[in-house]
Design goal:
This protein has about 140 residues and is α+β, with helices and mostly antiparallel strands. Helix content is about 35%, strand content about 25%. The chain folds into two domains: about 50 residues; about 90 residues, no CATH class. It has three helices and eight strands. Helix 1 runs antiparallel to helix 2. Bound molecules: zinc ion.
């Protein structure tokens, strides 16, 4: 498997080429480019989520991503946030210490391996946005 940096670099190049071509290229060329971009995004997601178990709820492999890059605020380094998560399973309502919380099938950490470990340990992300939980179907 290639490194995240290698895949991201090729994806950036493919996106630049795609945007450059998009104005002038004939449809078949632009379809080929978007196929390449889809494949690179899938490879990048697989690299970020390497070693992750399938989703315990729907049994599909989770996606991996850099959710937010590291940045500096007031001379303090805010670490990057990596995410491994399931895009098929909607968040659910849970109660933690007597408070209603939204629990998502996703795990966050400051490294890809850390996010995979938390995903595999089912250390789900929770927040207070309980109004954003979709109604059961
Ligand atoms: Zn799932």
């Amino acid at each position: 498997m290639r490194t995240i940096e290698e895949i991201q670099s090729e994806l950036n190049s493919a996106l630049s080429a795609f945007h450059e071509k998009a104005m002038t290229a004939i449809a078949t060329e632009s379809q080929a480019s978007s196929k390449t971009i889809r494949a690179l995004r899938a490879e990048l997601s697989a690299a970020y989520s390497k070693g992750a178990d399938v989703c315990p709820a729907c049994k599909t492999p989770p996606l991996g991503m850099l959710r937010s890059p590291a940045y500096t605020m007031n001379e303090r380094l805010i670490p990057a946030v990596y995410e491994v998560g399931c895009i098929r399973c909607p968040p659910v309502l849970v109660e933690i210490d007597g408070k209603k919380r939204r629990q998502s099938y996703s795990a966050h950490a400051d490294s890809p391996a850390g996010a995979v470990q938390r995903w595999n340990n089912q250390e789900w992300v929770t927040d207070s946005k309980i109004d954003l939980i979709p109604a059961p179907r």
